[in-house]
Amino acid sequence: MDLSKLNQDISNVKPSVLRQFDHDISADPKIVKLTLGEPDFNVPDHIKQAAIKAIDNNESHYPYFWGVQELRDAASSYYHDKFGYNYTSDQIVVSVGATEGLAATFHTLFQPGDAVIIPTPAYPVYKSMSDVNHLQALMIDTRANGCVLTPEQVQQAIDEHPELNIRGVVITDPSNPTGAVYTEEQLHALVPVLRDNEIWVISDEIYGELTYGVKHYTLSKWLSDQTIVINGLSKSHAMTGWRLGFVFGPSGVIDLIAKCHQYQVTAATSIVQYAAIEAMTNGEEDAEAMRVIYEKRCNYLRTALGKLGLDIVKPQGAFYVFVSLPDAWKDDSMAFAKKLAKKQHVGVIPGAPFGDDHAIRISYAASDESIHAAVAGLKAVLEDIGAVPV
Ligand code: PLP
């Protein structure tokens, strides 16, 4: 068969450098990994018990494609109480992790050729989803404003690209890879330009429960008729492998997203949905125990990296620190990550896939021991390249 006749936008999608690099360094038995965005905690026990009970109760049938009604009811009040979302259960689709929710949303909202603004540094999956849907990804560098998109930048993109049909923007708040969190004012300031230009917002709030000393806000508060919110249990309840997410959106468009979700995956797994009811009913405090530990690690890293003279984006959420490499490092971010892995057995992710080839991302979803080892390893490499302050 002639493969050139297949969807070339798929073959153009770059393989996940992130996972490939993580895989490659895993061959080293001494490696200390601060690579993946994966909570280093177990699923809370009461949720595990609910899953076991669902199996015993033979909850083994095709669930309704939107998701189990009781789960959508529970999610509606859980997120209303946490963040003030205003979505009834018929405006919520239960997806197979946030990722499938994102995929169904990208596929539904846009037509081939439309442009989508992706503020960078960004989670690489958005670009891949733009590519497979034949969209134009307009990457906007936000590093000069603390990694937060400004209304001026949106307006500038519109003015400078009259040839583009800018139909969407992705807001990741808190951010992977930088840990930046939008203030209420910063989010609110985006409303007029997005409303006037009828730009859909995909608001990825998967790290919403993991903020440090600041509150999480949602753009859906002011722009509910043109915002699709993505959330889920991967980070808040350490359930990455269980694949449970939510899509929240206004009536009309959410019905189309539900259809798209149905033809792609049928529904999220029945057992996991029943376990998720428990998470949404009795698991309001589950994230807090983890959040407190992440915050301590975050504070430690901020101080330790500061002492090494490294420039970081102020992390206020998620579980990442995005570190600019010192000027003394003349090569790219992959070369730095490789050197750190090879010489010091410390694994971090190069900044290139996120849109900054002179940075690295450190995940602190890892033990204190690993984090201390990573700082020591980083220090040794910086000394080696002559970049440690006296
Ligand atoms: N969105 C962001 C910003 C992420 O960092 C991740 C995972 O790292 C996801 C979505 C994917 O979440 P899920 O595991 O629920 O698909």
From TrEMBL:
Q: CDD domains from the entry? A: AAT_like (cd00609)
Q: Enumerate the Gene Ontology biological process terms.
A: amino acid metabolic process
Query: What SUPFAM superfamilies does its record include?
Result: PLP-dependent transferases
Annotated GO MF terms: pyridoxal phosphate binding; transaminase activity
Swiss-Prot/TrEMBL keywords: Aminotransferase, Pyridoxal phosphate, Transferase
Which EC number applies? 2.6.1.-
What does the record give as cofactor?
A: pyridoxal 5'-phosphate
Domain of life of the organism encoding this protein: Bacteria
Q: Where is the Aminotransferase class I/classII large domain?
A: 30-375
Task: Give the matching InterPro entries.
Answer: Aminotransferase_I/II_large, AspAT/PAT-like, NHTrfase_class1_PyrdxlP-BS, PyrdxlP-dep_Trfase, PyrdxlP-dep_Trfase_major, PyrdxlP-dep_Trfase_small
A Pfam family cross-referenced in the UniProt record is Aminotran_1_2
Q: Which family does it belong to?
A: Belongs to the class-I pyridoxal-phosphate-dependent aminotransferase family.
Which PANTHER family does its entry note? AMINOTRANSFERASE, ASPARTATE AMINOTRANSFERASE
- What this protein is called in its record is Aminotransferase
